[in-house]
Amino acid sequence: MKKEYDVIIVGAGPAGSMAARYSAVQGISVLMLEKDRDVGYPVRCGEAISKGGIEEFITIDQRWISTPINKFSFISPGGIEVVIPLEEQGYILERKIFDYALAESAAKEGAEIQTRAYVYDLIIENGKVSGVKVEIAGEKKEIKSKIVIGADGVESRVGRWAGLKTYTDFRDMESGTQVTASNINVDQNTCYFYFGKDVAPQGYLWVFPKGNNLANIGLGVSGIIGKKKSALSYLNDFMDSKFPNAPVLTRVAGGIPCTITLEKIVSDGLMLVGDAARQINPLSGGGIASGMIGGSIAGRVAGEAVKMNKLDHIYQYESDWHNRLGKRHKTFDNIKNGIFHFTDEKFNNIAKSVAKVEVDQRSIGNVFKVALFNNPSLMLDVAKAFFKK
Amino acid sequence: MIEILPNKCDFCGCCVGVCPEDAIELKEAEIKIIEPLCTNCSKCIWACPIEVIKFNRNGVKAAS
Ligand SMILES: Cc1cc2nc3c(=O)[nH]c(=O)nc-3n(C[C@H](O)[C@H](O)[C@H](O)COP(=O)(O)OP(=O)(O)OC[C@H]3O[C@@H](n4cnc5c(N)ncnc54)[C@H](O)[C@@H]3O)c2cc1C
Ligand code: SF4
Ligand code: SF4
Fold this sequence. Notes:
The complex is a heterodimer.
Chain A: E1 4-10, H1 14-24, E2 30-33, E3 48-50, H2 51-55, E4 65-75, E5 81-93, H3 95-108, E6 112-114, E7 117-125, E8 128-136, E9 139-150, H4 158-161, E10 173-181, E11 190-194, E12 203-209, E13 215-222, H5 223-226, H6 231-242, E14 248-257, E15 266-267, E16 270-272, H7 288-308, H8 316-340, H9 344-355, H10 364-374, H11 376-387
Parallel strand pairs in A: 1-2, 1-9, 2-6, 4-11, 9-16
Antiparallel strand pairs in A: 3-5, 4-5, 7-8, 8-9, 10-13, 10-14, 11-12, 12-13, 15-16
Helix pairs in contact in A: 1-3, 1-7, 7-8, 8-11, 9-10, 10-11
Chain B: E1 2-4, H1 14-18, E2 24-26, E3 31-33, H2 43-47, E4 53-55
Antiparallel strand pairs in B: 1-4, 2-3
The structure holds flavin-adenine dinucleotide and iron/sulfur cluster (2 copies).
């Protein structure tokens, strides 16, 4: 390890690895620091992603695919199931191996990687972030850099040390918990989503198959719900009623910041990417693909800034991100806020009207139309979502 | 005062993500409340998915 790098990345998740790769590919010196002893573990994720989300960055490899997905199934509080065939295929990943592959792809471009490296502070000189203070296997070190990229996930603190407001309002934080259980006898190519006040109020519960009747079963509920009943008790209730004897192989907790991108994701010498920048799709809670997109844009812009010797250029990342996804996330966030307040009755009515559509006519677009026309009040909610700034 | 129950935390970082005061430090398998910064606002308690943060009347016990 050197004493100084062009770019230092804090956190080796999907966002960090893409930031490392897209900066290293430009021939500059890059170091990625990860606090845990393993890249990609523990896995705090349902592992669902679209085909396009992967293929923008890496060729599909069976080593990190658990199962392909071609249907979504939505289950209303009253138990009405609506199955929708997908136009674009999806996958359930094996993220431990997937995250490894992403980090390897950064290493191939020349990025250095160090695990068991906990970043505990920033070096700030004349108001500009100029490196990190890190504890590597217990030993404290200071490493300088022109640019620091914070890819430190939902628990991000890097931005705060540079004076950015990065914490998420507890109402927008989906408190999540998940088990990976076996003997879950469901269709192995369908993702299941459960809604309603008894299952996962202000959120949803997922059953994502991983092949051979193994499945990720988890849920997220808003912090406002967690005040009264925790995500864990909701999940225990569901498992007790649906899969009482399923052996549980893994149990994790996790936070999903379902909100719009932070107001500021750049300051002098610092860029934030992925969950650290709150780049998750606030409607679905999916953050793998959007984190990779955020990371890749930041990595590219950081590399350009170093090569031009013009560090102000990193501010370009902010508008590039908003044009690519940030603006769309605002619309998704408005829709989420509408759906959050649906009553069980409304969910049931939507499910009933959609259930009348022939299965082969059920594209997401078509289902959306039917749901709208049969539930006029929903139309109002959606209109509000699109027109709210 | 806030206490994280020893040996029960999953180190997921959800509490860190909602703390307005930057008063929680999380390492790979170690967590602690930075007492001078904590205002006892309770947001971390509500956000913890597995209910392992509690009020503790005897004062903060930084548990790992
Ligand atoms: C229960 C749950 C289910 C989910 N399901 C899905 C899903 O099905 N599909 C989907 O697309 N998304 C899902 N998500 C969201 C997805 O997991 C995240 O959006 C994604 O992992 C974000 O990637 P990232 O690189 O930004 O952060 P992370 O993957 O969280 O990586 C951050 C890394 O930074 C490291 N780090 C943190 N602080 C420091 C420090 N101080 N020093 C050094 N290293 C540090 C961490 O150890 C970690 O490895 C889910 C999330 C949860 C919690
Ligand atoms: S009580 Fe409030 S200030 Fe204290 S650690 Fe929890 S969230 Fe932070
Ligand atoms: S939210 Fe709960 S489980 Fe997660 S790190 Fe905080 S105290 Fe531990």
